[in-house]
Structure formats: structure tokens, C-alpha cells
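Course assignment 3, question 2. Fill in each field.
Student: A.L.
Task: Predict the tertiary structure for the chain below.
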Amino acid sequence: MQILPPMATTTQELADLLKALGEFNRLSLVYELCECKAPRNAMCLCSCCSVDASVASRHLRVLAQEGVVEMEKQGRERIYSLNREEVAHKLRALADRIEGAGTELSKETEL
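Answer field:
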């Protein structure tokens, strides 16, 4: 098991992340960014979820506020990339918590 650097993941941070990912179009944008080899603008990303660029931009703004994506301005364009490390860390923390749930209790009952 890989030991991750300490990055506090509070319950509120996790709730905010899951809320951001819990909307179909935003999750579609995240999936699209997972497939991209390079950062993309909203116009390129909007095709994955059948919304126009302005709607995609709004969803990307929410994702950026929650740290799911990073936004960089290039002239008049905003370019988005997935913040893989932070998102993976938070989701891994939740998965580890779920996998560990009840293990102490089950070990005690086996004895």
C-alpha cells in the first residue's frame, strides 16, 4: 500500500467534492478530461455531454471551485485540466475508510 503525503480530507471537503461530481454533466466533463491527453477549453469539452459551451463553462467553474479541475487563462480562453492527484487522494481516503469500516468489530467477533 502506497503511503500518501498528509492531505487533510474533512467530511465537508468530501461532501463538497461528491456534490460537484454528483451532477451528470459535470461527471461527464470529468470523464472527458480523464480521456484527454492535454488540457481543453469549454468548447472542446462540451461535446461529451451535449450542452453548449456556456453551460459547460458553468459546470467547469463549479468543478474548479471544488478543486476537481484547474483553470488557466490563455488570452481570452480558459483552459481546464483535471486535478488528478487531489481528486484521487480524496476519493481514495473515502474508499479506505469504507474498506476499513467494521473490520475491528469483525475481528473481535471472530475470536
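Instructor remarks: Residues 64 and 93 are 20 Å apart (CA to CA). The longest helix spans residues 84-100.
Grade: pending
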